[in-house]
Amino acid sequence: xxxxxxxxxxxxxxxxxxxxxxxxxxxxxxxxxxxxxxxxxxxxxxxxxxxxxxxxxxxxxxxxxxxxxxxxxxxxxxxxxxxxxxxxxxxxxxxxxxxxxxxxxxxxxxxxxxxxxxxxxxxxxxxxxxxxxxxxxxxxxxxxxxxxxxxxxxxxxxxxxxxxxxxxxxxxxxxxxxxxxxxxxxxxxxxxxxxxxxxxxxxxxxxxxxxxxxxxxxxxxxxxxxxxxxxxxxxxxxxxxxxxxxxxxxxxxxxxxxxxxxxxxxxxxxxxxxxxxxxxxxxxxxxxxxxxxxxxxxxxxxxxxxxxxxxxxxxxxxxxxx
Length: 322
Prior knowledge:
Radius of gyration: 26 Å
Oligomer: single chain
Helix content: over 70%
Largest sheet: 2 strands, antiparallel
């Protein structure tokens, strides 16, 4: 008995030492000069297409159509006329993207806020409120992620156009929305498609929160709304930011959902619809296409850079306990 205990302890220490040394070697390799150089090379190659797009967007029309963007460095010349034309041009051949830019904002912002708000409430209920059928409900929400978006478009469109009728009785009437009112259909669709994934991620995040915090709050008389507002929300901010970035990118770059539920009219069509029209009908207008494409990526880039620190925290959340 006396000799066995040190042997086990020594073995444990030895195993722990091997694990620690292996993690240390991996960490040193990832922080080595070679890994840094490889990361820089990957970042440069990843950024080159975007940089070329930006350079092309500020070059004069005749130079864009006669030479590659890399010739900018040998004979530099730039102009902002492309952006002026694509944003505020009045001719039929111009992009006129200013109004479509506003439409994209009107679609994207509510389509990000609604699913995050609903998913946070649902995830808290599934993680910290005991009720009958909770586990089955969570499994059903998780299963909804496998439903292809394209398969749900036709039933959802029928729901908007004809409503819901059961046994000849109209349960929900048709929406009958026109012009800017169709934004509500797009918000509803994006919220439905985003909720399963958002609930799944936030539930996994919330379930890892220390249970002692919740018990202490209940002992102090805090209700579930108070706990959610004062304790849970500050702790899940990184996860909310990470989901918000993903949802913002998905909605901002979406073409199919917006085109189906909002239509292609000037009152409701987003940037993606207009850019698709420009590429299809005026594909030879490179100076406008490059300027329009760069306009469309500016806002997502700003959103990502402004929330980057929260995004990284959200990805690393749960890697360290305590």
